[in-house]
Amino acid sequence: MGILLLGLVTGIAFGYILYRAGVSRCGCIFDALNLLNLKAVKLMLTAVAVGSLIVYPLSALGLVSVGGKNLYVLGVLAGGAIFGLGFAVAGYCPGTALAALGAGRKDAWPMVLGGLLGALAYALVYPLLEPVLIRPLNYGRHSLPDFLGVNPVAMGLLFGAALIGVVFLIDRWEKGRVKVPVRPTEPQDARAVSRHM
Amino acid sequence: MRKVIREWSWLRGGIALGLLSAFAFVSYKPLGVSTSYPRTVALLLNPVAPEFVAQNAYFQRVPPIVDWQLMLVLGIVIGGWIASRVVARAQAREADMGQGALQSGTALAEAGQGEGCAFGPAVGNAPDRRRKWRAFLGGFLVLFGARLADGCTSGHVITGMTQLATASFLFAAAVFAVGIPAAKWLRAKGWS
Q1: A14, B69: Cβ pair inside 8 Å?
Q2: I need a labelling partner for B73 at 20 to 30 A (CA). Which of A94, A99, A104, B50 fits?
């Protein structure tokens, strides 16, 4: 019960951040994929860097376990490619669509409905795909420090610090670029929710 | 000079999301969203077709139970709702102060400060059916791909890359290798 409540509270914070940061607007995603405004990319990489810089020291203290994810080359690449295509069509990822749904955006429920059907379709074809895309080239739980044989905490901290540098470089490059003017921050749009009131 | 409530910057949003991600790692388990889609399907189908759910090899891996992540997903919807209400109220207040209570938050938002989406203010209140169909199609592909790869933006990119998972770097590379040309092509076609 406590775990469920913890999940709910974590989710509320998650949805609040996604909406307030503007990444739950499909326009923000479209602009990022068109390389016009990389806000969503910078935000994501910053989150990764902050996460690494906190999680790895805590893992050294034994407070967190970090072990990577299952690596099966074909399924991950094919799944990523299909995901990328859908991302470019929808402008939402599974999480941002839910924040947009809560905010009352009218194109969020079709995305979520399509997602549920996509998940059902996957469940139906899973027995066919599993031997072809998941079983071959499957290395189990796999992370870069284990693979390279380096200290995970050192590599995690170095990665986090380097990534922050990369994000600021992207930001500088973006600011120096002559292109269609992009407003630094979009005003927030409450229209969708106002309609519901 | 009216002060308009603005979206958080990438830095502020990124730090907030990184702190939340670290909190999730420490408090229970890393953030992830997309498993809850098939789990919701399993929960919906279970009362009407329990045998199908019990026998499907994938639903055996993602059984119809309410877990931490499903509550997280429910929380995201609530969090998005709360945030949009907070913004709507702030905008209405700003409008009252600046414009003698004539402009509502709605009017402000529609006065050309759109969401930069195909479904923007120009469409007015009419539902843009094409945009909805595209969101539906995109949603189908996004979740199919996320399940095949065993993770989405949350589970692979944010929490996977945070723990230096090799699969997550491959996933992110595949997403952008296809997503960027696809988005450029669709924009040229007038889709986004």
Answers
A1: no
A2: B50
